[in-house]
Structure to design on (240 residues):
């Protein structure tokens, strides 16, 4: 762990431990590398740069088919952490399953990785929940140059500090994980669906394996498998 050190300055909730990387570090890759030894609650934050790059190690005591629901818990937690500093006129929304938008423009997203398992009914030894958001554009890039994407700076967020965002994210994530454990899928799905902007449907739901269920006006149901969608995150180009 020469590229990282325990960061005692991060104000994290109980059971969380902070690890920071130098500017240019890769929080996702580092968290996956240390997950087997570091254990649940390890939060890796890459400092500096124009991107919020944060990953959290989880140890789900449930089969992979259910453990993937952690993505929805993480998305809701990150949105709530952002909302603390968001201008009220700039709504935070989701495009299923992993893209975060502000006022309709793409900001970043979340992905999930896990230890190899023999099948869907086996619990992975660890999972890594990774969040990446654009804090600001590089110097010389004017507002509107990339009309389909945005940053916290462009949207006028009161707080654009990655460390403080990581602290808020950890707190909301802890609450979300406890809620999931104590109350099951229903509150997890409700919090996520409240911010889901696309796809639209007459009715929407999330089944126990995390698949998105869409019902049209005629009552015809279609499903979108979460496992397939997670294989190709749709937001990585935003934070490259």
């Amino acid at each position: 762990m020469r590229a990282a050190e325990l960061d005692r300055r991060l104000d994290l909730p109980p059971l969380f431990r902070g690890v920071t990387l130098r500017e240019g570090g890769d929080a996702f890759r580092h968290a996956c590398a240390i997950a087997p030894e570091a254990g649940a609650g390890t939060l890796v934050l890459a400092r500096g740069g124009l991107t919020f790059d944060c990953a959290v190690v989880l140890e789900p005591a449930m089969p992979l088919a259910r453990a993937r629901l952690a993505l929805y818990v993480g998305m809701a937690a990150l949105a709530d952490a952002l909302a603390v500093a968001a201008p009220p006129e700039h709504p935070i929304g989701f495009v299923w399953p992993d893209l975060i938008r502000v006022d309709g423009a793409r900001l970043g997203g979340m992905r999930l990785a896990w230890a190899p398992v023999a099948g869907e009914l086996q619990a992975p030894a660890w999972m890594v929940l990774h969040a990446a958001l654009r804090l600001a554009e590089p110097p010389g890039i004017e507002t509107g140059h990339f009309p389909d994407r945005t940053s916290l700076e462009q949207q006028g967020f009161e707080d654009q500090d990655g460390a403080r965002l990581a602290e808020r994210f950890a707190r909301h994530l802890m609450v979300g994980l406890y809620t999931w454990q104590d109350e099951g899928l229903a509150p997890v799905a409700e919090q996520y669906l409240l911010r889901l902007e696309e796809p639209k449907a007459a009715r929407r739901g999330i089944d126990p394996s995390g698949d998105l269920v869409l019902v049209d006006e005629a009552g015809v149901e279609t499903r979108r498998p979460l496992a397939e969608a997670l294989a190709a995150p749709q937001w990585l180009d935003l934070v490259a």
Remarks:
- The chain has one domain: 4-239.
- The CA atoms of residues 92 and 129 lie 19 Å apart.
